[in-house]
Design brief:
Blueprint: H1 2-16, H2 20-55, H3 59-107, H4 111-116, H5 119-132
Helix pairs in contact: 2-3
């Protein structure tokens, strides 16, 4: 568990808060997520207005409630989509930075150290391990 906490702290401090673009994407993603949850909480109220207007046959309220309900549904879908895209872009940028730093570290390592390691293990670090770490980002 301690290694996991160290990895998370390293990723956040090194790759998110050191670069303004990545911090902006993270903050934007959080704001979009909060707006999505706020709108998701408002939607049942307008659904209730639609049901009540159908029961009591108030068609003016039905039109108003239906239009607002549809607008809220569409805006929650747009918010959810843009939030997912923002997180995906953030994930890709952080993974790219991790891979570049891994390549730099590997290519500047002493030759004696590189020969001691199995070649397959080194290739797996670059190919598989960075993408397995992406859910942690």
């Amino acid at each position: 568990m301690e290694k996991f906490k160290l990895l998370i702290n390293f990723l956040w401090k090194r790759f998110i808060f050191d670069e303004k673009r990545l911090a902006f994407l993270l903050i934007l993603s959080i704001i979009l997520q909060i707006l999505f949850h706020i709108l998701s909480g408002i939607i049942p109220y307008f659904y209730k207005i639609i049901i009540d207007s159908l029961v009591y046959k108030e068609f003016n309220k039905l039109k108003f409630g239906a239009i607002i309900y549809l607008l809220l549904q569409i805006s929650t879908l747009i918010l959810l989509l843009s939030q997912r895209i923002t997180r995906y872009v953030l994930n890709l940028k952080v993974l790219r930075k991790i891979l570049i730093e891994m390549y730099k570290k590997y290519h500047t390592a002493p030759y004696e150290e590189i020969i001691k390691r199995p070649a397959g293990g080194e290739m797996q670090k670059f190919i598989d391990d960075t993408f397995n770490a992406s859910p942690l980002i």
